[in-house]
Amino acid sequence: MATEATPRINARYLENFTNSTVRILGRVTSLRGDSATVDANGSIQVHLNRDAHLTLNNAVEIIGKVQPDLSVKVFQAMDFGSNIDFNAVEAVVDATHRYKEIFYNAD
Q1: Which burial class, exposed, middle or buried, applies to 17 when counting CB atoms under 10 A from its CB (0-12, 13-18, 19+)?
Q2: How big is the CA angle at 102 (ends 42 and 5), to the nearest 5 degrees?
Q3: Which of 72, 96, 89, 75 is nearest to 27 (CA)?
């Protein structure tokens, strides 16, 4: 059984992954009902599911689908707390796209 690749992206890659499932690690900058804004090298609007329990200013990893309006529909969200090295996160995102043949099919 094949599994779907979920490449790590940030805000600058959203357009390249419309209608695709992705992983985003960023900081929660606002919460409003069933939506939130996450800073992942730029602001990303996310539409939360009932199981998502985010904390303002904490890091969160989101697995979700990029919508045509470049928002993200959350499938799963995991709180990573407040002690995250976002420089390391950006290095991983950069490596994911520099060596994309290892991480996802770019077709």
Answers
A1: middle
A2: 65
A3: 89
Strand 21-32 and strand 43-47: the pairing is unpaired
pLDDT tens for the chain, 107 residues: list them: 456 789 999 999 999 999 999 999 999 999 999 999 999 999 999 999 999 999 999 999 999 999 999 999 999 999 999 999 999 999 999 999 898 888 887 76
Distance, CA of 78 to CA of 103 (rounded, Å): 21
Q: E strands, 1-107, where? A: 8-9, 21-32, 35-39, 43-47, 59-66, 72-81
Residue type, 9: I
Spatial neighbors of 61 by CB under 8 A, at least 6 apart, are: 23, 24, 25, 77, 78, 80
Question: Cα 55 vs. chain centroid, distance in angstroms?
Answer: 16
